[in-house]
Structure formats: C-alpha cells, structure tokens
C-alpha cells in the first residue's frame, strides 16, 4: 500500500471516529444527558437490541432508576420519566415520531393515530371528539341498548352456562370478544357489528390473524429501510403469510364497514362513530384515497385500540380479584347498591343501571384504576420528536431538533415516591384520605396518555370496563384454574405471556 493510501485511510478513519463516536459521545448537545451505558451515547444498537428482544420497557425503567428522570437511549433518542417531562413533551407541541406512521396506518392510509402533524390530527379529532366525550357515552340511548344486548343476551348467559356446567373459561379470549362486540357496535351499529362472544370460530380466526403479526412489528416500525431493502433482494424479514394476514384482516374489516352502510345511503341507527366521521369527511374531504377506505382506516384503528387493550385489563382485574375473596365481597356489596342492580337473568322491561351510577362506585373505580396502573395494556413508549428550535428539557439546554423523545406508562407508574410499593396491586391507594397524595397519583397516571393527543376513547373504555366488572362480580365468584404465563410481556401492547387466563365461575350468593 502506497503512503498516499495509508494517509487517506487514516484520515477517513479519523473522520469516521469523530463523526460516529467522538462527536455524539462527547461533543453533541445530548452528550451531557446521562446514558445507561457508553454504547448508548454513540450507537442505537443497544436500545434496538432491547426492543428486538422484547425487553424495551424494563430496560428503559432500569435506565431511569440508574440515571434519573431523563436518559439518553441512543445518539439521537431520549426518554423522560416525570410530570415535568410529560408537560414539556406532550403538552408542548412536540410532533409525533414517524414510528406511528409506520405502525398504525391501515390500508396505507393515515388515520388519527398515525397522523404525525398536529393540525390534520386536530381536524380529524374534532370530527369525532364529541361522540367519545364522557357526557355523550353516559347519556347515549344507543349505547344503553348495546350494553343491554351484549351483557344480558351474550356475556352473562355464557358465564352462567360455564358456572352451571363447571366449564373453565379463557377470560382473555372471552373479554376480548366482549370488547370487540361492544366497540364495533358503537362504531358500526349493533345490527352490523361483530358477534365474537357467540361466533367462536370467527373470533378465533380474527384473533389468530391479529396476533400472528405482532412479533414482526419491530421491523416495520424501527428498521423500515433495512426491511424494505432486504425484501428487494429476496430476503423478506416479514414472511408472506404475515403480510397475507394483514391483508385479510383489513379486507374483513372493510367488508364490515361497507356492509354497515353503502356510501351515499342512509347510515343505520346506532353507527355513532361511522356517522360522525362520514359527516365530518363530507365537510372536510381527504384528497386522494376513496372515502370508504379513509373511514375504514380510522375505524379499524378504533376497533384495534379497544378490543385487545380492554380484554387485557379485564383479564388482570379478574386474576387479582380471584385471589382476594374479601375484596370481591366488598365490591359486590357496593355493586348491589345500584338501582337496579345488574342481576342475571334480566327480563324484558327490567331497567338497566345507569352509566353514571356505575361510574360513581368508588371501590370499583379504585380496582379499575389500579389495574390500569400496574398492568397498563399499552406500557410502551409514545415517541415524539423535538422541534426545530432548540429546547430545554428537564434542565438540559440546547436540545436540537428531530431528536426522538418519549415517555412510557410502565416507568411512570412505578415511581415509588408517588405509588408506594409500586409492584403491588393495591386499589386502596386510590381511596386514601390524603387528597394531595391521591391527586399526585392521578397526575402521573398515564395509561391514556396526556395532552392534545391523549386517547380519545378513554371515557368509552372506562364505561365498557366497569360495566363488564359489574356484570361479572354482581353475579359470579371467580377462581383461578390455570394462570401459567400470566406475567405481562414487554411490548407496546402487553398481555399475558401465555395469551390466556383460565378461570372457573360459580354463581354468587347475593343478599
């Protein structure tokens, strides 16, 4: 090798070391932010490997335990874990990271969740926010009829049959079916919604199509360029059957939407979300894709957001209560104060407890709240990007633009100063007389996010969850048959590792 090539090689090596190691690790504005290890200060390999392993949430929490409320996860990525950090990032106008666009656009068409910029998101949100408001979901006569049909004619007869026959029940599968039936009825109208509670074959097929895709989400959201490049040279990271499953799932839901109403015809009674969205898109059309696909993309996102997450919460709530008969007794006593109580069987003409009265049950609220805290169904980070103008975040100045930054409920909900004994399920923490301490817990509670882009369906979800709990524990006691693999997986959407919880149901003895 000639001296010229030796010198050139040395120069290139020096430039590379400066660009990819020295600058990010020592000279970048992010260099002063603590990192859990030296590799994270100049390479994304550490956090990418943790995500691929399924250890992201626990690794980020451990990093915060070691380094404090702000940590550097990679050369261009930060995580914050405090109320002040949440205010800065999620109420300060930081836009969403492209991660959302890669993972949540159905049919290749943006929806409210996958939209990155605040303005188009706000326009879409205004079309639908009213139908998900607390006052609307509590007062809706359509939702009252949906509740009566699904609880009295589907869910409770199934549980009664299981109790009478002594048949063990997979609560995760059953409550996921309940959640999908409930959610799709509010989206599309009861007449055209799913009936997963009774149609077991359709339920199992839909769950299989949905679940088989989850292990491959990492590649599309974190390494999209590499994934596409490998596909172009004949090395598909995502197998063809998984892509086929996505296509089948999307086609199935598109048919549901089109069966509910053909565009240009009358929208059926009860299709609350469809109706509101169709009216909004009539006033503010989306250029490009067909209107039916725009609607289907949005509603499929609502359906996916609701059905699995609510099933996870109900699974962990029933698991915890099955180990605490004294709490079940107290909970049932509270539920029997409803006027009328939700006893099975109900008869035609019998009244149904109002959503407001269910919402006012203090112990039930504490049980649901604590389950959402310790077992958030979506514990993973919600990434944003820093604005072009340099920011100050938790005392660190001159944070440049386009830095990925996030918080996650897994870490926030394990703050021992706010939630003493954070790994214990303690509903009573929400009933303490120390109002200041309880208020602080609500401020840090983040299952539904915060700011202008927090979950639009939080009130709907809480009503669905509480109604199911009242239906179950007014009428039945639950007992664990098989909770193998009940530990929550480490993922963006996190259910039991075994994808099941087997419980036995026995009729309750009511006073």
Task: Please explain how this structure is put together.
- The protein has 511 residues and is an alpha+beta fold.
- The chain is 53% helix and 7% strand.
- The longest helix is centred in the middle third of the chain and has 31 residues, at 291-321.
- It is globular, with a radius of gyration of 25 Å.
- The relative contact order is 0.14.
Q: Walk across the major sheet and give the strand order.
A: 1-2-8-5-3
Shape, per Cα inertia axes: globular
Overall pLDDT confidence = 92
Computed structural class: alpha+beta
Number of strands: 10
User: Oligomeric form of this entry?
Assistant: single chain
The residue fraction in helices comes out at 40-55%
Please count the helical segments: 21
Major pleated sheet = 5 strands, mixed
Alpha carbon gyration radius: 25 Å
Unreliably modeled segments? none
Give the end-to-end Cα distance, rounded to a whole number of Å. Answer: 93 Å
Task: Classify the beta-strand content into a percent band.
Answer: 5-15%
Q: Layout of SSEs?
A:
Layout: H1 3-27, H2 45-53, H3 56-67, E1 70-74, E2 77-80, H4 83-90, E3 95-96, H5 98-104, H6 118-128, H7 134-139, H8 141-165, E4 169-170, H9 171-188, H10 200-211, H11 217-222, H12 224-232, H13 240-260, H14 272-283, H15 291-321, H16 325-335, H17 355-359, H18 362-374, E5 384-385, E6 391-393, E7 396-399, E8 404-406, H19 409-412, H20 435-444, H21 458-475, E9 476-482, E10 502-507
Parallel strand pairs: 2-8
Antiparallel strand pairs: 1-2, 3-5, 4-10, 5-8, 6-7, 9-10
């Amino acid at each position: 090798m000639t001296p010229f090539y030796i010198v050139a090689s040395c120069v290139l090596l020096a430039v590379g070391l400066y660009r990819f190691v020295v600058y990010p690790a020592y000279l970048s504005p992010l260099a002063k932010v603590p990192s859990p290890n030296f590799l994270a200060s100049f390479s994304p390999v550490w956090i990418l490997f943790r995500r691929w392993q399924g250890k992201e949430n626990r690794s980020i929490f451990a990093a915060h335990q070691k380094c404090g409320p702000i940590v550097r996860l990679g050369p261009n990525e930060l995580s914050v874990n405090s109320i002040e950090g949440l205010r800065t990032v999620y109420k300060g106008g930081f836009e969403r990271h492209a991660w959302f666009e890669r993972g949540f656009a159905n049919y290749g068409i943006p929806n409210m969740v996958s939209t990155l910029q605040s303005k188009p998101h706000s326009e879409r949100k205004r079309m639908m926010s009213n139908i998900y408001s607390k006052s609307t979901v509590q007062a809706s006569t359509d939702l009252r009829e949906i509740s009566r049909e699904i609880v009295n004619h589907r869910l409770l007869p199934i549980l009664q049959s299981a109790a009478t026959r002594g048949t063990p029940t997979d609560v995760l599968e059953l409550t996921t079916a309940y959640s999908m039936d409930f959610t799709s009825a509010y989206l599309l109208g009861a007449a055209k919604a799913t009936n997963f509670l009774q149609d077991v074959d359709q339920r199992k097929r839909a769950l299989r199509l949905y679940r088989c895709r989850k292990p491959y989400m990492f590649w599309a959201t974190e390494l999209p360029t590499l994934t596409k490049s490998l596909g172009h040279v004949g090395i598909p990271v995502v197998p063809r059957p998984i892509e086929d499953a996505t296509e089948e799932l999307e086609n199935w839901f598109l048919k549901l939407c089109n069966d509910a109403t053909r565009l240009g015809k009358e929208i059926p009674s009860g299709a609350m979300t469809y109706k509101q969205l169709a009216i909004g898109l009539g006033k503010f059309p989306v250029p490009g894709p067909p209107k039916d696909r725009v609607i289907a993309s949005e509603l499929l996102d609502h359906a996916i957001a609701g059905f699995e997450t609510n099933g996870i919460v109900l699974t962990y709530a029933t698991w915890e209560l099955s180990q605490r008969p004294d709490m079940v007794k107290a909970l049932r006593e509270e539920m029997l104060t409803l006027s009328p109580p939700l006893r099975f069987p109900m008869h035609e003409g019998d009244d149904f407890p109002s959503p407001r009265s269910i919402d006012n049950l203090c112990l039930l609220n504490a049980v649901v709240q604590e389950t959402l805290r310790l077992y958030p169904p979506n514990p993973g980070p919600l990434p944003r990007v820093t604005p072009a103008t340099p920011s100050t975040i938790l005392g660190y100045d001159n944070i440049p633009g386009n830095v990925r930054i996030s918080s996650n409920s897994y870490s926030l909900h394990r703050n021992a100063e706010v939630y003493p004994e954070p790994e214990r399920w303690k509903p009573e923490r929400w009933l303490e007389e120390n109002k200041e301490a309880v208020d602080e817990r609500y401020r840090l509670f983040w299952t539904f996010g915060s700011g202008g882009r927090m979950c639009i369906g939080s009130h709907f979800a809480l009503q669905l969850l509480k109604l199911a709990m009242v239906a179950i524990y007014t009428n039945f006691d639950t007992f664990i048959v098989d909770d193998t693999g009940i530990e929550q997986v480490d993922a963006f959407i996190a259910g039991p590792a075994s994808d099941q919880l087997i419980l036995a149901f026995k009729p309750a003895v009511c006073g």
